[in-house]
Amino acid sequence: MVQRKGVAAVFSILLLSSAAILSPAEAKKRTAQPTPAAVQAKQFTYDPKVNEQMAKKLKIPVYFAIPATARLPLPDSIDTTDKLVDFKHPDGVGAQGDVGLRLIVAKRAGLAKRLAKSGLVQTGDILLTFRSEWGGGGPYPNIQMGISHTGVAFVKDGTVFNIDNPLDAEYIGRDFKSQLNSSHYNTLNFIHIIRPRNLTDSDKANISAWATRLTGSARSVYPKEVSFNQDYNDPKYKSGKPITFVKQLGQIGLGQNPPGNVGMFCSEFAWSLLALRQCDPNTPSTVDAFKGSSIPSCVKPIMTPMDATGSYIFSRSRSSYAGLADGPLLVVDSLKLPNDKESELLKTVFVENPKVLSKMSVGHRQIAEKMKPNFSPLETYYVDAATGGWGRWRARGIRFMSNRKVPDNYSPTSYLINTLLPSDNSNRTMDYVATVAIE
Question: Do strands 126-130 and 190-196 pair parallel, antiparallel, or not at all (unpaired)?
Fold first, then answer.
């Protein structure tokens, strides 16, 4: 979730080095030493020493890591000069599950071109702002898994561009052509890359065309026609109702000047843009379809919006689904810990740490305080759902009541949560690619 101003990350990765004057012999000796595996790698590589270094820099709880089952299969060789690190969370090493992060350790300069060249970021990829400093702060930041904002990538002329709502200079640059270098992206240390499944070349071309149109007109349409909705509990999506807000966004992109204003939060905007992937804005038939009274047939949801809590933890079937609050629960479940250790770990999700909370923006701290009454039953749900027995019936009751109160939604974290379902699950439409770690 995004705060409008002052959203700069307070966590910094400081790489300290000392300079020394070396003798020619010593210089030759050091030059001859082999480069660490993570530097040479053209694939994500695990190295114990590098892993220890990254663990100290990340300082994240194990439920901020991502199970290996969430990962997108990648080519055997990746064309990049950036370091590719297969990070394994130390708290998961002794467990049955494999949790960690694929880290693209990179300098900020030239990042957009290198990510495009390597294919590690492609058109249609979802860019999640990941704030590692939130880890262990309390139930609100923990359930969000440290994710605060959603953008969408599109590649043009060998460079990654981003489109985000708000469609303003802070997020898409003063020239409205941000290449991951707007003031928002320039403050970030970590970005998760999530890739929607089954995007065709045609889909990608359409996404790029829509993104180009919307960024190109941002100066005139934002916030007059497209505005930012700061209430993440008020999505435009209503189950069983036409997704008119997606049509309205398409009309704005086509310059059709629809009446009214459509306010969207960041992840809702991303969901809507991706729903336009099968609509070619450059064809007369698409223009005519968006002028009609019904929703164009080319509009297709990229992912089913989520209930507050899902069914997967109970049924494990191929048609089961995950919920908005299920992220840490599913990560811990993947570790396959004994019941007592699993219960103990899940309870830590709900322990508040004021020092860590102070690192969040004022807006996020206010949301955390407002949501406090909801966390006690959610803790019961977590522990009972995971440990089984009669407690599962109580967990089912909490799930039923929670889902009645919370509308179906597509929060920033929901895209990552979708990847936590088994690979062959019918509701799995996303894969985790990697996490950019900016030096």
Answer: antiparallel
